[in-house]
Amino acid sequence: MIATAETIEAPHVDWAGLSPLIAVFLGAIVVLLLGLSRSRSARETAVPLLSIATLAIAIGLSVGRWGERTDLIAGALRLDELTLILTILFCVAGIATVLLSWRHVAPRELAHGEYYALLLSSIAGMIVLVAAQNLVAVFVGLELLSIPLYVLCAAEMRRASSLESGLKYLVIGSVGSATVLYGLAFIYGATGSTDFGRIAEVLAGGDVASDVLLLTGVALTIAGMAFKASVAPFHQWTPDVYEGAPTPITAFMAVATKAAAFGVVLRLFDVALIDAALDWGPALAVLAAITIVVGNVGALGQSSLKRLLAYSSVAQAGYMLAGVVVATRLGLQATIFYIAVYLVMNLAAFAVIVARERETPLGDDISSLNGIGATRPALAWSMTISMLALAGFPATAGFIGKFYLIEAAVAGAYTWLAVFIVVGSMISLAYYLKVIAAIWMQPAEDDGTVVATEPVPLADGGETPLLAGGAEEATSARGQGELVGVAVVFAALTVILGIVPSPLLDVVRDAGAALGLL
Amino acid sequence: MDIGWFLAISALIFSIGAFGVLTRRSPLVILLCLELMLNAANLALIAFARMHGNMEGQIFALIVMVVAACEVTIGLGLIVAMRRRKLPIDVDEMQELRG
Q1: Inter-chain CB proximity B14 and A182 less than 8 Å
Q2: Domain that holds residue A284
Q3: What is the ipTM of this complex?
Q4: B93 domain residue, yes or no
Q5: Out of B14, B45, B96, whose CB is closest to A164?
Q6: pTM given for the model
């Protein structure tokens, strides 16, 4: 026994390449254990600080690996610039989520350690997902991302709507996963391999590309991924789940989950299925057009900010899909660029929503923003910049992102889709400007609740449902420096990237070159 | 034996599962139907593995079983949490979130 064990060579594992993933996993375990500590300060301060440190380390390790392109774990994962830039984005979103959750009720209900450990494992799942170049790894990453999120959505266990959103997300998410899985099974059946490289070889070899097994598989995979990325007509869960989940988790889902879903769609379609592009391109293009219309029209009548941003995120998914449809390097770069700026714009908006949920008893209703232009200029400007950027105003990052996407669509012979993007942006102005009007043109609520330098008594919210971090969470305006900080930093980034986009463009160009598209 | 039969059975199970998710009102039965969908995919994977004569499909199916168990655990946990709060365990009555 011992003699044979000595002769067996241990498989080669590229620890350095795996280091960002390992850092996040280790962080999750340490955070979970630290959460068991009896000292309250360890639980309430050390745990979030350690989560931030973990994510910062993962960012550092990813930056250190920039420029490397290798296969990890026998080709199951791929380390390249696409993986790295998305890893960095997930970690940035994670740090922002930790800051937004700092004094939120949700981590307290889940005993701090568990909440942050789940958040970190979800981020680890995202990293696995976007690095995956094997169908098995795709499925494992997808589930590792989703399962912690189901729990996080239901984190505020004393609020019925939080539990409801958790269960709804679980059912819809699992239907999506099962559909993806069935699709992946058919792709495996048609090509005889789970490895992206082998699948691409078989498809390049000819006649399989129009095989009925393969087409069924691709169609089911598109449908399942559309559930995850909330692409219409598979988006119906999005507003309900976004509204019910704790707001920091909503922010995380809106930016990071979407980035992860698009990351894997990019790699799966642009590497493994690139030779079937004529089959899936038009299908995705139609989905993108429907998504843009449905998202923008759905957002028009919303009075809840979280629902409004949910529909807006559906519309934005449609814009991003346009970059996938064209299957060119330009499209890939445009999609990655848009994912990055979308993350920056949305985090600023969600930070403002969390702050206003704590300051007013109005929850996430649009009226909670009334008149904050005069009373809370920092929050007001952040929200204004974020809304203008989401609508695609010039001098914001959103404009550059949309410009790039439209350029990619036109260059890829999908001009009609570019028209949809432009028309969609025009419709979207109606609801984004509604928010800006509430900030600057509506009078503030007169009885001082808007300033809310003292906690609002819970009793007067008799008919107000207990909204996420609602009245009982109301804290003094001074006590939420971290929220204002997140809002201001991301709003500033939105403007900076809108005026000087070249650093991000350079990074995105590297990532676009990683997949070997023309 | 022809692979078509395995695929037909698998498609049938998947459809039963999808139909159940759409029409049943109890979250418990919905979870069962989700299991059906995942296991239909497992059947297809194993049939394809046999067809191609490689092990990748079998390994995939094993991993799917593990993941399915995790998913059901979370689902049952959520249902227990709702039960403890005396919320209606009926998806048609969950109307807190709409609009």
Answers
A1: yes
A2: 278-450+477-518
A3: 0.94
A4: no
A5: B96
A6: 0.90
